[in-house]
Amino acid sequence: MYSFHINKYINENSDIHELNPFTKLFCMLITLIIVIITNNVIKLLIILIFLLFLILLTHIKFKIYLKNLKYIMPFIIFIVIINFFSKTNIDLTIISILKLIITYYYSILIIYTTKPNDITYGLEKLLSPLKILKINTSSLALTISLSIRFIPIIFIQADKILKSQKSRGLNFKGNIKEKCEKIISIIFPIFDLSIKRSIDISNSLEIKLYNPLKKRTKYKQDFFTKSDENIILMHIALLAICLFMR
Amino acid sequence: MAIKFNNVFFKYDIDNKDYTINNFNIELEDNKIYGLIGKSGSGKTTILELIDGLILPTKGSIDFDNISNIKKEIGFIFQFPEEQFFENNVKKEISFALKNFDMSFDKLSKVLKIVGLKEEILNKKLDELSNGERRMVAIASVLVYNPKIIMFDEPTIGLDYNNKKKLIRLIKALKDRYNKTVIIVSHDIDFLYQIIDKLIAIENGKLLCYDEKYKFYNNDKIIKEHNIPIPKILLFEKLVEKDKNIKLLHSTTVNDLIKEVYRNV
Known about the structure:
The complex is a heterodimer of chains A (246) and B (265).
Chain A (H helix, E strand, L loop, with lengths): L14 H4 L2 H17 L3 H17 L4 H6 L1 H17 L4 H24 L2 H12 L9 H31 L8 H32 L18 H19 L2
Chain B lengths: L2 E8 L10 E8 L4 E5 L6 H9 L6 E6 L5 H4 E4 L12 H5 L1 H5 L7 H8 L15 H13 L5 E5 L7 H16 L4 E5 L3 H7 L2 E6 L2 E7 H4 L3 H6 L6 H13 L9 H11 L1
Helix pairs in contact in B: 5-6
């Protein structure tokens, strides 16, 4: 029940929401490649500004994005401290922080604007070249999307068990050994319950006669609009800038 | 007075404009059974969690009388408590709270008697139990530390007829024999009507109506306006009264109602 907006789709009416999920994932791939190959503050800043532009296009409140900063703050602080003690160049520190922020916010943007089912669809399309290697891409995509789906379930379950323990007088005071014992007492039932949950899901898939080995039809049409093209072109242009600009 | 809500406001997300609990004021007395009704999402469970101190009010306060340790003196039986077991055998699950509150283990057999379970069950694994037994184990694991106030969240869901009857007897005994205050959240109005003393209706986190259960159903206007469910026994009672133009005494069980009708018609 608490703020699980870390991985939640936010329904808005925007151009980014209407893009083909494949386009979004493909653009994310391009951005990741750019982030990996560039080691220049200015180029990274250009990408950041471009990302800001995309974020503005989503019509989701900027405050919600800013709130997510607290989840990567520990990593940023960690990078700063490590680089400070190893006397690394400040440029390198800024570059690594920028890279972290860009990758993080790009994935947040995708998660906020794409429904989990659409992500599966996009992944399946993105992984389709693997079919040449005789890898079953649709079951791979299903596995990935199910594991994404499981994160909030596990959190909710942990919250329930914690509440039941707290109301029966558990408190997390005491020495480290006791604390560890208490935390382990939560982890095992969660593990147990998530296995039960996955059995439920596999049963319900089986009841619906789901067979990953057969060829499946899609109720979604493959669409590719002008804005899909534009976004991909923009990303390719960005890639070109980062590759060839000096 | 056992519990007093003073202008309590609560919301889960700070950014959210609407409050889940909106300006809630109520006084609950000792040694009574309260029923809490409302539509799904109206904030019933949130109120129980507020009382148990699992969440704190955003604004306002909740006062308790004669209660020093909230966790120890208030027991909370969750919705589907059997899904929240975390130990692997029954004895460990029931005695979990005893360990936390540093209490002796000698009450275990007494508590099993109260909920109507046999002593052999203590050595069983939780997976081996039936659904009804699991629910009773969950109730026993709360009753074992002898809280003054006991709260049930949807206790009848998934229970068969016999277990439901057993639960009704148990809740009545909690009030009459053990002098507990009981608060029950339920959608099952027929079940509630049999046992409660007072009824609280909420809507969108606001108090709609709060009264003795017989007086509660005199507020025809509110009941009609907000679509509050009416127990079948009361409906039949009113039907007979209207049809035969007589006045009946209120009854809470079918047997009592039949006797009452026979006496008057």
